[in-house]
Amino acid sequence: MKILKFRCFLYSNLLFLSLFIPNPALSKTNSRRNYLFNSAEKSNFKDTLRYPPFINNQFENQTTEINYNLALNQNLDQSRNIEILADKQFQEENVIYAEGNVIVTYKGGILKADSLVFDKINETVNASGNIKLILENQVFNLEKLNFNFKTKRGTFFKVKGLIRTNNLIEDLELTSNVSQGIKSTLHDIKKNKVLYTPDGVNNWIFSTKELKVDNDQWFAKKATFTNDLLETNQVRFEINSLRIIPKGDLLKIRSSLSYLIFEDKLPIPFWFGNRTLNKSKDGSFLDFTSKWYLGLDEVDRDGYFLGRPLKPINIVNDFVLNLEPQFLIQRSLQGYTKSFVKKSDSITADKVRSDLSFSDYFGLNSNLKGKINDWDLNIDNKLYSFDFDKFINAYRFKIDLSKEIEFLNSQWNKSFYGVYRDRIWNGSIGESEIYFGYGSKLEKNNTWDVDGIQKNERLKLGIGKFRGEALNNKNLVDSYKASIYYSLGQKFPLVVEESENKFVDRSFNYIYEPVKQGIYLDTKLAALYSMYENGNHQKYFGFGVGPEFVFGEFKKRYFDYTKISFMPFYRVKSGDSIFKFDQVADKFTLDLVLDQQLYGPILLRSNATLNLDGASKDYGEFINSRISLNWKKRSFEFGIFYQPHNQSGGINISLYGFE
User: Fold this and answer.
1) Quick one: pLDDT at residue 55?
2) To bridge 503 with a disulfide, which of 193, 288, 324, 351 should be the other Cys (CB 3.0-4.6 Å)?
3) What is the pLDDT of residue 251?
4) Counting beta carbons within 10 angstroms of the beta carbon of residue 24, is it exposed (0 to 12), middle (13 to 18) or buried (19 or more)?
């Protein structure tokens, strides 16, 4: 058996042979004890085939009839190192038959079936009838399987599995004690009730009609994955022409055009593409890129545009390049652009209306991801026109190199970054940019509960060199900057009606967990200190407190859920930045949130920040805002949003995880 170390639930397709395929690494070790002996070793064989305690607990009424003359080929047996238990076993010539409550064990893995046939000469294995494969936390059902060890070809029929990606890498190594795995996994794949997992989607139901293997490569014409463990067809992924290629400690996955399907009615095409997965991947595996989408950007693209993500490209050393050509619809129709400064003007000058060339109709987004040792590299590029004369104004660039580290007994994110023309929205100051910058950040985020009080904490330290627009004029200025930021948010329950049962069943059609109805008091403390190389510095201490009201169960057809919150926030500030992009300008603000169920799954979400700083020219204006209309179900949320403050919008899709 070839043990591969991956962190990817799709590798579950490879699990079915883990009980049978020899591991080259094992065959090189000293001889291991065989669990099927010849007749001369009958006394030892009786002890070996005695049921372990955990199996006796689950199958205490099961009887075993063993033919002690059964023996596999010695070399083959040592490389397999398997144990077969059944109600009845017998051998005809070179074929071994096991019938009735067949249990095959291998290094912690359990295979159950109604019958199993092993041909020692042709080296083929066939199993059928109520097949269940258990590897610690992973559970799979299938109708039948066949495999030829000589040709390394086989087929699995009507496969269905419950994949737990958080434990998958450890479970695949098959090194733990059998009794630890069987207790937690002898249950049905289909659930009657589930529990929401806020850390992401880590459990998936996988199915395919036929899964083929050919010399360590795996194929499925169509494979289905869903995070909806209640199997109500709310959402599923259909991946076409799935091909899985093991390569050392990596897993290469290829597919053709696939679909994200909502409610069995709305298919959204996307490229799952060519991907390389390894141990660094977390459980949030099935992200997707839609084949086409419509976006809105009034600032850099002059309005509506059409994006078309292409199939991901695997580059050297498993770096993946994603390209997204864009057609700027509104710019091409109106015949002019207001996204660029005049050619002879400074880069900080006001944008002006200018005529178009054909190359202005198109834009491009690109993203390059990969690993350098244990660091994650991410490079984003944006191009808002293919007119070479506009390149300086039309190009944006951002690079980030990061990894998780242990520091002061906590997990931190350490990163190095570089930016060119990075847009930043800064409250009442409006749109500003970092024209050039590089530096390093160290950041940690913690969330925890104490006696029902929800707490979240953020600490960030950074140092870098920046060029940006000056605070009080349009000149570009350069400076080093060092800063430290800390915030602590708390939610105190005042009057709460909370269900003791956190599980949800099919009656919870719209929400992933019972609503915590009641009245809460939200508080926030924040502090910032920044200093610059010319002696400038700015600092503030901020505090806020406000109520939050949550009513309704979100189970009825209309107006059964309302959430309203108000958070006044005041900053005591001194000093100024030399830049416009990071100046703390709004001393007193009010954050507003309103979520309202309208009808069925239709949910209105809105949030905004109102400027209450009497010294500001934008007093009484909304300086940040977002409104969305969402289709919300238990296992997913699909919404269309618009942000008036920066005239942008788009589509947002979220998936929710369960166990």
Assistant:
1) 35
2) 193
3) 60
4) exposed
- Residue 603 inside a domain? The answer is no
CB 141 within 8 A of CB 163: no
Within-domain flag for 245: yes
Dihedral angle, C-alpha 199, 201, 205, 208, nearest 10 °: -150
CA distance 260 to 273: 14
Query: Helices in 217-375 by DSSP H: which ranges?
Result: 329-334
Question: Up-side HSE of residue 617: CA atoms within 13 Å toward CB?
Answer: 3
Structural domain contains residue 652: no
Strand ranges in 23-82 using DSSP code E only, listed in sequence order: none
Q: What is the largest CA-CA distance in the chain?
A: 97
Give the amino acid at 244: I
Residue 251 resides in a domain: yes
Q: Are 227 and 235 in contact (CB under 8 A)?
A: yes
d(CA 362, CA 387): 9
230 by DSSP, 3-state: which? coil
pLDDT recorded at residue 166: 66
Number of domains in the chain: 1
β-strands 375-383, 453-469: how paired? unpaired
Nearest to 320 by CA among 247, 396, 371, 250: 371
Helices (H), 7-147: 24-27, 42-48, 53-58, 74-80
How many angstroms separate the CA atoms of 521 and 545, rounded? 7
pTM for this entry: 0.74
Backbone angles phi, psi at 3, to 5 degrees: -90, 120
> At which residue do the structure tokens 């040709």 appear?
151
Separation of alpha carbons 134 and 103, rounded Å = 11
| Phi (first) and psi of residue 586, to 5 degrees | -110, 105
Tell me what pLDDT residue 1 has.
Answer: 35
State residue 122's pLDDT score: 87
Residues of the chain below pLDDT 50: 1-79, 174-186, 279-284
Q: What is the pLDDT of residue 538?
A: 96
Paired sense of beta strands 537-551 and 250-254, if any = unpaired
CA angle 181, 128, 161 (to 5 degrees): 45
Distance CA 266, CA 517 (A): 32
Contact in structure between 450 and 439 (CB atoms under 8 Å): no
Nearest to 579 by CA among 521, 533, 542: 533
- Identify each DSSP E strand in 107-202 by its residue range: 109-119, 124-135, 138-148, 153-164, 196-197
Measured distance CA(414)–CA(374) in Å, rounded: 12
CB 617 within 8 A of CB 428: yes
Domain assignment of residue 184, given as a range: 9-277
Whole-angstrom distance, CA of residue 18 vs CA of residue 34 = 17
Question: CB of 59 within 8 A of CB of 132?
Answer: no
| One-letter identity of residue 190 | K
